[in-house]
Amino acid sequence: MLNAELKSDLDKLWKRFWAGGLANPLTAIEQISNLIFIKRLEDLDNQNIKRAEAKKEKYKSIFSGTFEVSGKKIDKATCKWSHWKHFTAEQMLVHVRDVVFPFMKQADHLEIMEDAIFMIPKASLLQEAVSIIDNLKIAPQNYDVLGDLYEYLLSELSSAGKVGQFRTPRHIIRMMIELLEPKIGDKICDPACGTAGFLVNAFEYIKKSNTSTELIQYDEAGIAHNLIGDKITKKEHWKILNTETLYGYDFDSTMARIATMNLLLHGIDKPNIKRFDTLSKAFEQKSHYDIILANPPFTGSLDESDIHSAFKADTTKTELLFIELFYNLLTIGGRAAVIVPNGVLFGSSNAHKKIRQLLLEKCQLEAVISMPSGVFRPYAGVGTAVLVFIKSSDKTESVWFYDMVSDGFSLDDKRDPIGDGKGDIPDIVEKYRTKAISEKSILVPIDKIKSNDFNLSISAYRETKQEHIEYEQPKKIIEKVLKMEKEIQEELEELKKMV
Predict the structure, then answer these.
(1) Are 366 and 385 in contact (CB under 8 A)?
(2) Are 337 and 390 in contact (CB under 8 A)?
């Protein structure tokens, strides 16, 4: 729950980077992330030192000892934020670029940072950024605010004038997670993770499920905060949640680093984020995950020679290959909630039909939730749907369809909230539990879908309501017309006498 002062400081930081020549928002976010992370390293180290002292345990500071840069041994203590934050602008630029940044790249569990590049071009810009970040009043252990801060930064990707990456609306992500109900022990994967929105929100959902109701706070948008997970009392469960639960892959190194930072700033100590093209031969497709949450690239095709041999669908279309990938990565009984373009639902090619057949005959296809075309504005106006399925030897018997009319926001580029900003989402989550039938939802038997080329579009099955209108008998209509004509004639005769 960022206050107005924090938001103002972050907006100021954006403007500084914009004016300083870093107009690409992804580059700006990455560079800001680096600085926030460097500050957080010292804050957490100090916190761990105090905790160890209180418990009379041994703890080795991450800033103790030396490391090598260009053949020189450097004292790690000089990398502390508090050591160099008061340097002159020029001294600071040289020190951060040549000493602090290489130290961060060598940090444990941050292999993804190895090819990161320090790109802040001006000493004055770095000094201003450090000053603003240093004044952000955030306690080191307050991951909730740190996470909100980062989400606010990421939200700038969709702001006018900033050309950003495709980013899934957070309320849609939360809906999909509520449908799957992840828990401690589930291995959760997003094979096209982008900024790690699905992973972060899955983590938050699990913490919320394990936080006492009276401790949870809600902001004006209805989003839960203070998710401390007080009901998680076993250390091994925290360890599982922090190190063995969330897994993400992205082919873009910048996005993978931003995803890593996002998880770190939400309290995940060891993010399992890897740079990989998960459709390529280089990626090992193992049935390893209990939950798949994803919004993969909608368009594009791959070089046929680089497509993984595990794929059975004869296509280069990424939106189809990803669905097969999700199936391949799930354990038996594993479940998925993924976003697909509407073309996947009714496309007539053999590959389209084969993918739909896979979902219906080798999985339990639980739900097809059609979303209005404006949900992804201002990025794109393409129509999309959420597929919910379980990898199972039991075939689908019937499919639950829901036609989302509103997601709670206007469907233009402004995306202003409408009413309480929830739209049909609470109704979807409630009715999904029992596959209830309503004005917006139907249940269709598998045989009917098979006989219709495995079509998964709700419009192919929903009956069109025909309103019955009763008309008067022609004789009565003629009598009414004659009567009206007579009345008009009489009125004209009266007018004629008055002239």
Answers:
(1) no
(2) no
* Alpha-helix runs per DSSP H in 80-213: 81-84, 89-95, 101-105, 123-134, 143-155, 170-180, 197-209
Where does a domain end: 127, 153, 179?
Answer: 153
243 and 125 in a common domain: no
137 plus 223 within the same structural domain = no
User: Which range marks the domain in which residue 11 is found?
Assistant: 4-153
Do 384 and 239 belong to one domain? yes
Q: Amino acid identity, residue 291?
A: I
Q: Are residues 234 and 317 in the same domain?
A: yes
Would residue 358 count as lying in a domain?
A: yes
Q: Is residue 158 very low, low, confident or very high in pLDDT (cuts 50, 70, 90)? A: low
- What is the per-residue pLDDT across 214-227, written as a single tens digit (0 to 9) for each? 999 887 777 888 88
Specify whether 68 is located in the same domain as 187. Answer: no
Query: How far is the C-alpha of 264 from the C-alpha of 271, rounded, in Å?
Result: 7
The type of residue at 300 is: G
- Token pair 């949870």 is found at 216
Shared-domain flag, residues 297 and 439: yes
pLDDT at 484: 78
Query: To 10 degrees, the CA torsion angle through 279, 280, 281, 283?
Result: -70
pLDDT band at 426 (very low <50, low <70, confident <90, very high): very high
Number of structural domains, the chain?
A: 3
Confidence of residue 156 (pLDDT cuts 50, 70, 90): low
Does residue 466 sit within a domain? Answer: no
Q: Are 152 and 10 in contact (CB under 8 A)?
A: yes
Report the SS3 class of residue 280.
Answer: strand
CA-based Rg of the chain, rounded to a whole angstrom? 29
Cross-strand partners of 337: 293, 388
Q: Is residue 380 part of a domain?
A: yes
Q: Does 102 share its domain with 170?
A: no
In a domain? residue 219: yes
CA–CA gap between residue 495 and residue 209 (Å, rounded): 81
CA 277 to chain centre: 19
Neighbours of 45 (CB within 10 A): 18
Q: Are 232 and 185 in contact (CB under 8 A)?
A: no
Q: Please check whether residues 310 and 380 belong to one and the same domain.
A: yes
Helix (H) or strand (E) holding 367: strand 363-371
Edge to edge, what strands does the sheet with 384-391 contain? 272-275, 246-250, 188-190, 289-294, 330-341, 384-391, 363-371, 398-403, 441-445
For residue range 297-353, what is the model confidence (pLDDT) as tens digits? 876 667 788 888 889 888 888 999 999 999 999 999 999 999 999 999 999 999 999
Q: Which two structure tokens, joined as six digits, stand for 409? A: 């926001």
Domain boundary among 153, 176, 201: 153
- Which residues, listed in sequence order, are joined to residue 247 by a DSSP beta bridge? 189, 272
